[in-house]
Amino acid sequence: MHASPEAGSPVAPPRPLVIGCGALARELVELTRRAGLPAMDLTCLPATLHNRPERIPGAVRAKIQAARARGVEQIFVAYADCGTGGLLDRVLEDEGVERLAGAHCYEVYGGRAAFARLHDDEPGTFYLTDFLARNGDRLVWRGLGLDRHPELLPLYFGNYRRVVYLAQTVDPALTRDARRLARRLGLAFERRFTGLGELGPTIAAFAGRPDTPDSRSTSADGLTLAPVPRLTGRHATDSRGTTRGDHLDRPAGTIDGRLGRVVARARGARVHRSKVA
Q1: In 3-state terms, what secondary structure has residue 191?
Q2: CA-to-CA distance for 171 and 255, rounded, in angstroms?
Q3: What is the spatial distance between Cα 205 and Cα 216, in angstroms, rounded to a whole number?
Q4: For residue range 128-169, what is the model confidence (pLDDT) as tens digits?
Q5: Is 102 exposed, middle or buried (0-12, 13-18, 19+ CB in 10 A)?
Q6: DSSP 74
Q7: Largest CB tally within 10 Å, which of 125, 130, 133, 262?
Q8: Which pTM does this prediction carry?
Q9: Spatial CB neighbours of 124, under 8 Å, sequence gap ≥ 6
């Protein structure tokens, strides 16, 4: 406890802080507020940063430094590499902060080994989570301009074969939304229940409660979830054996990085088209 210089009464130190991706916000609130974990604070950056992943490292660094200025000592970053090509890890190495293991949230939810098998089975897969199923029309269909320029659909998704919805919850409405998006994209549809995958055990480990039952989740339809007995280091390997901090090759179906590049290309195509007109 810290003593107040004025009153001499003890002042509680700042609580541990989780800096999260907005795409994980609901799940992080569930874990930090209702999963029986010790008190901790949570702040999330906008999920739209995934369309500009080069901005993620700077935004995370700003959050970390602001927290340090308030006296926060325990900080965990609930981001995977998320399309930053190792740049986020350079920031976290400088700041002495850990993050979620893996290249993206699909590995976090599905389990790294299980996701690698899923991706190897069909590399041309576009992945959805609860967040993306809930916001698919806004982030994917309208976000890519397909509502205004449907002719761009083959450019974006011509190399894809299926949509796999990695579901965190059992929600028929979200499944319908995910299925409808797959149909609009002209792709086959599969749903795999993952629960919170590795997210729960990792946050529990940060909180010092690695065996908290409420933080665990299991698969309801055969997708094996890899256990996380402790926090992995900043240089833990991803599902392909690549050391974090090196450049990570993102699977073709990830919204992290891939969608950002697609959006940039689409913007360039629209600018070129307008100049020609």
Answers
A1: strand
A2: 22
A3: 11
A4: 999 999 999 999 999 899 999 999 999 999 999 999 999 999
A5: buried
A6: -
A7: 133
A8: 0.73
A9: 159, 160, 161, 162, 252, 253
